[in-house]
Every structure is written in structure tokens, then in C-alpha cells.
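Appendix B. Worked example

We walk through a single record from start to finish. Start with the input: the chain for Nitroreductase domain-containing protein, Peribacillus huizhouensis, length 205.
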Amino acid sequence: MSETISTVIKERRSVRKYDPNFKIKKEEILEMLKDATLAPSTSNLQPWEFIVFLNPEERKDLRAIAYNQEQIETASAVIAVLGDKEFHENIDPVYDSMYEAGYIDSASKEVLVGNARKTYPYAPEETRKNLATFDSGLAAMQFMLNAKERGYATGPMGGFDKVKFSERFNVSDRYFPIVLITLGKLNAPAYQTTRLAIEDKVKFI
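Next comes the structure step. The output line below is what the pipeline stores for this chain.
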């Protein structure tokens, strides 16, 4: 029987030690990413892209860009999560798809498209990047929980040179790197962590 979501959340750890001989099929990684992108996003405009690193030669370069952290090469895969700062380019394909699926009628589609076109293309780039970062973070967390439910280990990594990453892997100006996620089979226990008392972090009003 599948674990409850509460159990998955409580047992998930950020992992650094992976079995270097363990492989995960591309098809399963795609399934996990598909589930991850069911996360909510700004006006459903899905401001994310992913690069999945499997090739050992590419990962040697990625390891150098990620300050020589060994899990880049020992994990089964590394998923780079990118934000899309021009996510307004998704307006037509997103709402066309919703209309064709029967989820919205033509009048609703016209309102949604009109509102999005009046808002996002004219928003400051910093605002669009912040929205894309937030939404991509939701998808990244959903990916890690999905992986844990399937019995895999993950580790989010913010420590890498984002400028060099974009240069080396030919990331277009439309996208910007947010986080790397290592994925694979646990090879050593992840260390335990504690959390500050929730009573000190919550205020009811």
C-alpha cells in the first residue's frame, strides 16, 4: 500500500550520497516531471522548464559548475529547474488547450486571455522572475515528494554558478536556472535535522 502523503513528507531527506550504479529510466523521470507540473502556477501559465542530465560527460562539466559536489556525478540523474520569465508566451497554448479539453467555454477563455495579456507582458522583469521562481519551487517540491513516494532519494541544490550554467548549457535569455535536483538511490543515510517549534513560527489572528 502506498505511504500517506504525511509519511512521505516526514521521511523525505535531502540526500548527498547515491549509488553510482543505479539507473532510472527516462520514461519514469518524465512521469515524475509530469506529476510535478500539476503544481499550481500563476494563471496556469506554467513558467518552468527542465533539463535532465544523464550523460556522464555533461555531468562532469556540471559538477565543476556546482562547486565540485560529488552527488552531481553519483546520482542517477540531475534535474535542472529553470524559470520562464516570458511565461506570457504560454497564454495562447495554455488557454487553447483548456478550451479544447472542455474546461472553459469561449467566453471564459476570452476573459482569461484578455486579463493575462493586459497583465503579464507589461509586468517588470523582476516581478515575472519572482512569479516564475515561486511557481517552479512548487513544482520542484512536488517532484521530490513524488520521487520519495516511488522509493527514490533527492537533494535540492542551490549552490552552483548560475551564470556559468546558462553559458555552458546554452540556456536562452528567456529562461534562468533556479535549482538543481539530484535523483537516485540512497547509498548512505541522510543526516537528520530538527525544526524550530511551530508554536514560535505561527500566529493566529
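Two observations about the output. The longest helix spans residues 125-149. Residues 20 and 74 are 4 Å apart (CA to CA).
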